[in-house]
Amino acid sequence: MEWEHLFDDLEGQLAAEWESERAALDAESERLRISKLTLHDRLRTMSARGARVVLELAGGECWDASLRVIGADWVGVSAGGDPRLRVAPLAAIESVGVDHGSLLASLASDAPDPGLRGRMTVGFVLRDLARRRVPVTVGRRSGDPQHGTIDRAGADHLDLALHDASEARRMHSVRGFRSIPFSALSWVRLEDASGVL
Predict the structure, then answer these.
(1) What is the 3-state secondary structure (H, E, C) of 128-176?
(2) Which end of the chain offers a freer environment for a tag, N or C, measured as fewer CB atoms within 10 Å?
(3) What are 27-36's pLDDT values in tens digits?
(4) Would you call 116 helix, strand, or coil by DSSP?
(5) Separation between Cα atoms, residue 18 and residue 7, nearest integer Å
(6) What is the pLDDT of residues 158-195, one digit of tens each?
């Protein structure tokens, strides 16, 4: 009878040690998984869950925004009551404010497949806007926003024909040109609703 208690006690101790080891391995596995998450991954999860965010951007702007689309290295948002799409490179985002529940939910491992849009770079998007002649406002890290139309977008910069936001790009309305490095971009707002991505 005493041997039976001894073996039961040993089995209980062994089961408790195994459970403790398994919990430690699970915790370490979760820490490793989280260490591989990028801001892009977390924003994609937040977008799929319809989270509202506060984006603080290079250049000092702060937007209360709804995430609408996530690209390879950019986010598309609607800010405030303005329905126009704003494209912000991830490199221009200085912080993302969310409620605690959304912050924890963004750690989930079930982020949706980004599809083709998820592989589009900011350069690809800007080249498409140039091809479609969509009027834009470009916010830079320093300096005032500039209105115009993107004439072309290279590997690391865009050429912007400057004109009033209320006018179409015509030679007589263009008052200058700027080449702007992508690294200087804080955001690009599409002024034409038909230019939605």
Answers:
(1) HHHHHCCEEEEEECCCCCEEEEEEEECCCEEEEEECCCCCCCCCCCCCE
(2) N
(3) 677 788 778 8
(4) coil
(5) 16
(6) 999 999 887 878 888 889 999 999 999 999 999 976 55
